[in-house]
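User: Some background: our group keeps a shared notebook of sequences we're curious about, and every so often someone picks one and asks for a predicted structure to add to the entry. Today it's my turn. The entry only has the sequence so far, pasted here. Could you supply the structure so I can complete it?
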Amino acid sequence: MVGRGDETQPLLTATEQHHITADSIGGTTCYGVGRDASLQQRPFVSQVSTIQSTLRKRAGKRCRNPNHRHTPLHDHHGENDPRSYISTEYESLNYDTVENDLGFTSETKREYQRFSSLSFNRWFVCFLIGLFTACIAVIVNVGIEKLSHIKQDIVKMFMLKCLNKSACSVLLPWLVWAGFNCAFCLVAVLLVVFIEPVAAGSGIPEIKCYLNGVKVPRVVRIRTLLCKVAGIIAAVSGGLACGKEGPMVHSGAVVAAGVSQGRSTTLVCDCKLFKDFRCDHVKRDFIACGAAAGVSAAFGAPIGGVLFALEEGASFWNQSLTWRIFFSSLVSSFTLNTILSALKGSPGDLSNPGLANFGLFQISNYEWFELIIFVIMGCFGGLAGALFNAINIKLSLFRIRNVKFRVMRVLEVMVVALTTSAVGFGAMYFVQDCTYNQIQDNTTEVWNLQMQCNSGQYNSLATLFLQSPEATVKSLLHAPIERFAWKSLLVFSSIYFFMSVWTYGLSVPSGLFMPSLLTGAAYGRLVGVLLHMMAPDRISDPGVYALIGAASFLGGVTRMTISLTVIIMEATRNITFGLPIMMTLVTARFVGNYFNEGLYDEHINLKQVPMLPWDPPVKSFRLTAGNIKSTPVKCFNSRESVNTIVTMLTTTTH
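Assistant: Of course. Here's the predicted structure to add to the notebook entry:
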């Protein structure tokens, strides 16, 4: 607090003496520059962001090096670890409302009709957000289907021609498959590396930062959206272990930012619309609507979208915002459902609420003893998720330190695309899992390839590797128990685990939801098959275990609980499994948090974003402003001109 006094007297002068203090925190000495103890007045220091950013870390050990372009936070990760610093390239968004005489006068002059019009415009913008997000989801879905069918038809033709004949080499089908994959992946990486780097990844960590007050450069630009949409179509069609669901959250956020502002920086145009919404805190609310609409379009889960925005996104919430977010999610899901039904030749048959349709369970019962098994699977999912995060963090650190040039990033994606093609084809060729069963489901895309099997038999691994990820998840959830042998499930889950770890963090748009669901569903079905072998009378449907495995692994990677429970229930259209899914996700979260944070939070740390968590670090009670503030100290008089304040803010880097 600053007491009254001479308004022209500075709160802290440059001539006052400072001293260096030392404080031992968790075994580490932290040095800070503070004021001399004889000074009576406390300074008004413009270091709030530095203090907040420092408190976000668990240990809060290291102080700022004025000669470094990043602010060190602590040495828990090591001196050369990017997570030990925060970047100075990020600025804060202004979420404060205008509170001055000019703003008050402007508000009092507004008429009642103006407020009514403002309320209508808010709902209209939310409607447009849901509508345009659904249209983008349709473009992504149709683009992936068309490109994938072209690739798969040609590859299947070469496989049928060459695998059991001596007319051509067995490597020819793989070369064709790898050629398609590399071509598609090349398009995806070029869009990111040379046009818009912020379009890489799922975009969820960046949107989470934006909703919590950090201005991430170019994250909600139209150019980012175009690169994200085209890149995810190319990356998924190229066979990378990634999904289209995560990038839909980012796409919805960009749509919301553009529609709500009525203008585009990329296109250099201003439609002169919605000028009342051109402030950070209103734009933030609309971006939360867009993120929820993206989840709703991805999984057909309007309620899950609302809870996702609440749990993983915004830290600013109110009741009216809840209604608007739910309205955007509902419009998005309904619009997508209507358009996809029409494209599939059955207009009016609203059976396609989202991009990921997991189908209906024929058997939806479970016994009490299975709850214990589900909890154990939750523990394993937490451990596997923590291992996934740890390996991915090491790979990301390696990329930060060594893969610095554009050419190297392009080559890395090509290597991953070739490796994914080679490993998948090798597993199909060398692991002989032959079955007479065929999945009779017109909503599921099926690959019945003979490979090295006898006449009338089909290779199950070919079904797992060559289908689209959504179709493969559906097969694992609903196929007959004899369709996939335990060795195929073990090989597939192991391969997809490591390929997903390697893929997430590449310079391509890539989602995390579907690879995690696919890996977890494979290991969950493996558990169900093994239990059925031991107790065939008690375990009848391994698809239930595939569902629990998918939830446990995705929960172990992302540490989502409430929203993920509702998303899975809405995607499967089955509320019966609500209790086991909740128990599994809570267990996976607690087990995983013992080792590391969720992958989204870890990547926020890797990007050196100064974002506060919900709770302060345990040891932060020993920190004072003198331990962590930056130097030289900048100060204001209790009364300053606007020019002085603006000059100070524009010329100060901390």
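Suggested note for the entry: The chain has 22 helices and ten strands. Residues 241 and 500 are 5 Å apart (CA to CA).
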